[in-house]
Amino acid sequence: MPVSAEDVAHIAKLARLSLNEQEIEMYATQLSGIFSYMSLLDEVDTDGVEQTCQVTGLEDITREDVAVPITEEQRAALIAAFPERVGDLLKVQAVFT
């Protein structure tokens, strides 16, 4: 499946990537080669092969999220051990900046 330079430029625009003409041509060539190689999978005989998305047999293990009360001593020790705090509030790094 050939990938055109226009396809690469369009995808780059959607991904907000700034690519020059040389990079666009390089990626078009590389992606065309990758898709061409992947098309070899169409030649593999998969009749009789059972579909699967997981082969190890492992399953997710979850537990109930239950709040467990702690004593005032435990609470005070936790607050005292935290590196940064404002009163009884624990200060952590920002997740979104």
In short:
The protein contains three helices and two strands.
Q: Given the helix and strand composition, which structural class is it?
A: mainly alpha
Task: Give the percentage of residues in beta strands.
Answer: under 5%
Radius of gyration: 27 Å
Task: Name the shape in a single word.
Answer: flat
Unreliable stretches (pLDDT < 50, length at least 5) are none
Helical content stands at: 25-40%
CATH class (first level) name of the domain at 5-42: Mainly Alpha
| Cα distance spanning the termini | 41 Å
The count of β-strands is 2
Strand order of the largest sheet: 1-2
Number of helices: 3
Average pLDDT level: 90
Main pleated sheet: 2 strands, antiparallel
Plain-language structure description:
It is a single chain. The chain has helices at 5-14, 21-38, 72-81; strands at 85-86, 89-90. With 97 residues, the protein is mostly helical. It has a two-stranded antiparallel sheet. Helix 1 packs across helix 2 (21-38). It is flat, with a radius of gyration of 27 Å. It starts with a helix and ends in a 7-residue tail after the last strand. The model has no long low-confidence stretch (mean pLDDT 90).
Secondary structure elements and their pairing?
Elements: H1 5-14, H2 21-38, H3 72-81, E1 85-86, E2 89-90
Antiparallel strand pairs: 1-2
Helix pairs in contact: 1-2
